[in-house]
Amino acid sequence: MPRMDGEGYCSIEADSVYGAAIAMPQIARSSGWPATLTSLTIRIYFFTVLNLLVQGFLLSMIGEEQLIMYPFAGQMHLCDFGASVKECPDAPNCIGPSGTVYSPPRLYSFPIWSTRVFVRDSMKAIFPEHAEQIDASVDPGEYRSASKAQPLAVAFATCFAKGSASDSIAQKVVEQKEEMSLTRNSAFAFFSGAYLGIGQHFVYNVAFTRLFGPGMELRVGVQKVLADLFVHVPFLYLPLYYMFEDTALGIGNPASGLRRWRAELPDTMMAYCKIFPIFHLFNFTVTPPELRIAVVACVSFVWLVVLSYLSHYNVEHAPAPE
């Protein structure tokens, strides 16, 4: 767009399927849709969709490796262990990996728990004749995953870091600022952690599940996508974001944030529609539950960059008051 405004033309990529996907339909339409150009257009669209699917799959695999493989390398799969600790010892799944009953004072993260087990086993190896006494006196506790022990804290910390990284990319790479605004970055990161980490947990995992059910059928997926697109995002997520941003950055108040929300809603929703409806439909109906976190993290990271850029562009380029 800047080149279109400054030089009067807008070039497209000559060596990319995206450029061909933009140019070929226009050429075919101008020529009256002859059979050759029509077939080329269909083929280009096919390769474009295939390219997006392959890239999405690769991003999901990278995200899975970063968010699941690396953090949980060497750890057993204990997603449900410790989930019902408040009802133990009478609830199901109250026996931990050490073979003892869960109790709140004896729960540790995996690194601490594995270290305590190592110390106990080392003492038994050094003093085998006192193995029974060591077992009775040295209690390594039990392992409970952080996401089960403190799910909201984990969600907040994860999305806080992701929001900060997204805004950093928006400022340094997209807007090419020489000096990054830490105030803007902190405000964006805090909102990301508070709402995207905690708020949307209740929207997607609690409210949507209660309203539409936990199924992965196409009908359920379409209902969730429509509710997200026409209710949640435009009338809950974005108003809260603009109100918080204006207040936190000191550029206005909640009322001015709502005015900016009304003015920028079409452009923001247009950008949102290009990313999320198809993705959410795929995620709600196809993606296995154990991969959804990785897939959402990858896609929402891109969206946060777009949202940070769009929401600050009009503020920073507004004409100075006379």
Strands, helices and their partners?
Layout: H1 2-7, H2 17-30, H3 35-69, E1 107-108, H4 110-126, H5 131-137, E2 142-143, H6 146-149, H7 151-174, H8 182-212, H9 218-248, H10 254-285, H11 289-316
Pfam family, one: Mpv17_PMP22
Family: Belongs to the peroxisomal membrane protein PXMP2/4 family.
Transmembrane segments: 42-62, 293-312
Describe the structure.
Belongs to the peroxisomal membrane protein PXMP2/4 family. It is found in: Membrane. InterPro entries: Mpv17_PMP22. Keywords: Membrane, Transmembrane, Transmembrane helix. This is Sym1 protein. The chain is mostly helical and 322 residues long. It folds into three domains: 77 residues, no CATH class; 60 residues, no CATH class; 177 residues, no CATH class. Helix content is 71%, strand content 1%. It has eleven helices and two strands; from the N terminus they run αααβααβαααααα. A two-stranded parallel ribbon has the order 1-2. Helix 2 runs antiparallel to helix 3, helix 7 packs across helix 11 and helix 8 packs antiparallel against helix 9. The longest helix has 35 residues.
